[in-house]
Design brief:
Elements lengths: L6 H15 L6 H12 L13 H11 L23 H10 L4 H15 L3 H19 L7 H12 L3 H7 L3 H4 L10 H14 L4 H11 L3 H16 L3
Length: about 230
Amino acid sequence: QAGDNTLNAHCARVLIRSIIASNGRYSRDHFLQSYIEFMTADPPRHRDTYAESYHRGFFANLVAKKPPHQCGARTHDTPSMGGLVTIGPLAMSSLLHGAALSTAQATCREHLFLTHPDETLGRICDGYVALVAGLLLRKAGEPSDGHLLEAARTTMGLDLAGMVARARTDRDIVGGKYSTACYINDSWPCLLYLAFKYRDDLKAALLANTNLGGENAHRGAVLGGIVSLSCDST
């Protein structure tokens, strides 16, 4: 129904509950057990009628008797925005528990590869975690601009400020220069564009993302976290 969580948003909640149940620390095996139990629950514990290919690939491998931590499958859309939906909560949890950036990145990449074993997406994940760290831990009053610009430069070599300045409308970028589909090479630049343009207005960012269509659910899930951190450094 309108307003319901997508399946990937439910999986982010599964992760958060797993962290809480593990005394505030991430446990790979506890998460996997929780994920499998959630996905195989009868009656179902969610109402999403669409499961991305990574879910289908994971359970095909599980049925084939692979160990759960080796069930991640490569499919046509493994390097996609949906893989980053659970990363934000995990990154923030790790960083707020005092983990170094490199440690948080390694933890998040390991978690990502449980379901999305793709090196291109892994590199974006590293940059995403670095962006979360920069925004989350910056000093009071420090603007978010530099962190967003750096994330765009280091992950994809983008001139984000120039992109925003040259765009007449959001559709010049989202659906124009880049596809609105889930694939990370298009969806990540679209997300960064929206995050930078609307970095001080969360509602405007989410409305713009929604109205641009395409794969806006998972793009919006990641965008909402980034802009929430960008809006206020206190």
